Amino acid sequence: MGEVRGGCCPPMDLFRSEAMQLVQLIIPIESAHVTVSYLGDLGFLQFKDLNSEKSPFQRTYAAQIKKCGDMARKLRFFKEQMDKAGVSPSSKPVTQTDIDMDGLDLKLGELEAELVEMNANNDKLQRTYNELIEYKLVLLKAGEFFSSALSSATAQQREIESHQVGEESLDTPLLADQEISTDSSKQVKLGFLTGLVPKEKSLAFERIIFRATRGNVFIRQSAIEVPVIDPISGEKIEKNVFVVFYSGERAKTKILKICEAFGANRYPFTEDLGKQNQIIDEVSGKVSELKTTIDAGLLHRSNLLQTIGDQFVQWNSLVRKEKSICHTLNMLSLDVTKKCLVAEGWSPVFASKQIQEALQRAAFDSSSQVGAIFQVLHTKESPPTYFRTNIFTTAFQEIVDAYGVARYQEANPGVYTIVTFPFLFAVMFGDWGHGICLLLTTLVFIIRENKLSGQKLGDITEMTFGGRYVILLMALFSIYTGLIYNEFFSVPFELFGHSAYACRDLSCRDATTDGLIKVGPTYPFGVDPVWHGTRSELPFLNSLKMKMSILLGVAQMNLGIILSFFNAVYFRNGLNIWFQFIPQMIFLNSLFGYLSLLIIVKWATGSQADLYHVMIYMFLSPTDELGENQLFAGQKMVQQVLLLLALVSVPWMLLPKPFLMKKQHEDRHLGQSYTPLQSTEESLQVEVNHDSHGHEEFEFSEVFVHQLIHTIEFVLGAVSNTASYLRLWALSLAHSELSSVFYEKVLLLAWGFNNVIILIVGIIIFIFATIGVLLVMETLSAFLHALRLHWVEFQNKFYEGDGYRFYPFSFALLSDEDE
C-alpha cells in the first residue's frame, strides 16, 4: 500500500483499512490541468474512468499523450546515448521550474536531430578510418610478401647463372636456344587479390578457394598481431592479411564471390615498390587527419550529451508527469456545457480537507473565476482497501496482500503477522548461532538502506533488501528460540546456570535418563544442556516440540476464529456470530482445545498418561473407564460432554444460517414493496447513487450448498490444520539434526586428525555447508512453511481477501513504474 511520511495524517491504524469515500469534482476546464497536477502531488485520490466506453484515440487529450510519448522516446534515446558514452545524468537540483511543454518538445527535437546527425557523421568517419587502418596493414604485409618473393627470386636467378657459368657443357647452347625459341606470347600472366579475412575463418577460406579453383591458385597469409576494428560490424576481430595469385578471369570471379561470402575486405595493391611507399605515406596522412577529426567530433558530442545530462532528470520528470496528467484528464467527462470537467474517485476520509485545499490553490494559481466543486457521493459500490504503512510494516503487509487484498475494512491479519510470522519461523529455525548470522546479515542491509534504496540490485538481493525488517525479526526470534532449545550451531551451553542433573555412574551417557540423577534446581531457562548427546535426547525433544506445535497451532486457529467474531460485530452480521463463530469455537476447542488442556495438565502433573490413547478412545469408546490414563477427576464426564457439543456444533453451523438468510431476504423485499412516492429529483438521485445491488436474486440452493461446503471444510480443516502445525516440530527437528551432523561429522572429525591442513579444509567445508544449507536453504524452507501456516491455517478462519487495492494518482509512484 502507500507509504505516508510526515505529520499530515492521523495515527497509523493497521487493524482495519482507512475509511474511504466516493467524491465528485466539478473542475473548470481552464484550471483542470493545474488541479490534476496538484492532486498528483497530494496523492490521495484514485480517479474512476468515466470514459470507459471510448477508445484511447477518441478521448480529449489523445494528441497530448501522443506528444508526451514522442518526447519520452527522445529522452530514452538520449539515455541510451549517455549510457554508451559513460555520461551519467546530473543529480544536482535544478533551479529552473517553469518550462513550456511545447518549447521543450521543440528543444528535444532539435537536440535529437543534432545528435542523430553527429552519430551518422561519426559512424561514417569511423568506418573510413577503420578501412584506412586495414588498407595500411594490407600494404605493409603484402609489401613484405612481394619484397621477400623478389629477393628470393633474384638470389635464385644469380645462383642459376653462376651454376651455368661454372659448369658449361655441350648441352648448354642447345638449352639456351630452346629458351630463346620459346614464344613470349604464350607465357601465363598471373593476377592477384589482397585483403583481410577473419582469423577464425582463414583455414576454411583457403580450403574453399583451393577446391573452387582445383588447386590453380597460390595463397599466402600473414596474421596481424593486434585485433583490428572491422569497418562493417564495428567489432574488434583478429584478422589475417591474404594474397591470392590466380590465372584467368573465371578463377578471379570465383575468388571474389568466396571473399564476399567469408566477409573478407579486399583492397587494391600495386607491384611497384615506389608506388607502394607513396601510397603508404598518403594513407598514413589521411589516418592522422581522420583521427583528429573524429576526436574533435567525439568531444563535441560529449559536450552535447553533458548538456543534456545536466537537465535530463528534470525533463524526464516533467514529461512523465505531463503524460500521467493527460491520462488522468482523459478519465474525466465533459459536462453538457463543455465548460467543466467532471471527475469521480475514491479518497480516504481524512484527506478531504487536503483535497479541498489543493482545489482552492489550483483555482487561485490558474486565475480561474470559478473554483472547483467538491462533493461526497453515496454509493453501494465496495471501496478500495488502503492501509497506511511505514518502512517497517510494509513488508509484513505485502506478505498478507500476496494471498489477497483485504476486503474493505475487514480485520487485517497483517497486524498479527508482524509477531506471529517471525515467531513461527523461529520455532522451525531455533538456533541462536544461526540467528546471530541472520541478524548480522540483515543489519548490513538496514545500516546501508539509504545507499542501497537508490541502486538497482539483482532480483534476489532486491527481494532480500525489501524484506530486511522481516528478516530482522526472524533473526531476533531465532535467537530467542535458540536459547530455549539451548543450541548454538547444535552445541549446548550452560548460559543460565549449571545443569540440574549429574551422572550416577560413568556409563550413564550411553544409557537412558535412568542413569541421571537430579542434583540441583531445575535449569532456569530453556532445555537443560545435559539432554544433548544422550540416547534419550531425540524422544525427549520430539515429545516437547510436538506438543508445543499443537499448543501454538490451536492458539493461532482460535485467534483466527476470534477475529471472525470481530468482523461479524463490525459489519453487524448477527448470523455469523450465532451460527459461525460460536459453533466453530465449540467444535475446535471441544477436540483440540481439550487436547491442549491435557498437554498442559500432563506437563504440570508429570503424569505418564498416553494422550494418543485418550483422544482415540474418546471417539471409539466414550463410556469406557480411563484407568491409568486419567489425568483429573471427572475426566470421563467432561469428554462425553465435549464430544456431544462437537457433534451438535456441526448441524448448528450447517442448517440454521441458510434458512434465516432466506427469511431476512423475504422480509427485506416485503418492506420494499410499499414505499412512499418520491419527487423526480429524489428518485433521480436514488438511481444515480444506488446500483442494482438492492434487487439481487436470492438462490436458496446456492446458499445452502455454499454453507455445506463451508461446514465440511471447517470440520475437516480443524483436523488437517492441527496436523499441519506439526511441521513446526518436523522442521525444527530437521534443522537441529542437520546442524548436529555438520558439527560432528565435519568439524569434530577434522579436529580429530591432529593435522592443520585437514582442520582448515574441515572448517571451510563446515562454513560453506552452514551457509549454503542451514542459512540459505533452511531459511527459505522455514519461511515458506511459516507462509503456508499463515495463509491456509490462520487466515482461512476469518479472512476473505477479495478486496482491491487503493491506487491513488500520485507523482511519487511514477518513479516505480516502467514507461
- Round the mean pLDDT to the nearest integer and report it: 87
Number of H- or I-type helical stretches: 23
Distance between the termini: 21 Å
Runs with pLDDT <50, length 5+? 1-12, 174-182, 673-694
Percentage of residues in strands: 5-15%
The structure class reads: alpha+beta
DSSP, total strands: 13
Helix-residue proportion: 55-70%
Provide the gyration radius in Å: 43 Å
Major sheet, described briefly? 5 strands, antiparallel
What general form does the structure show? flat
Keywords, separated by commas or semicolons:
819 residues, alpha+beta, four-stranded antiparallel beta sheet, flat, disordered N terminus
Compact overview of the structure:
With about 800 residues, this protein is of the alpha+beta class. Helices cover about 60% and strands about 10% of the residues.
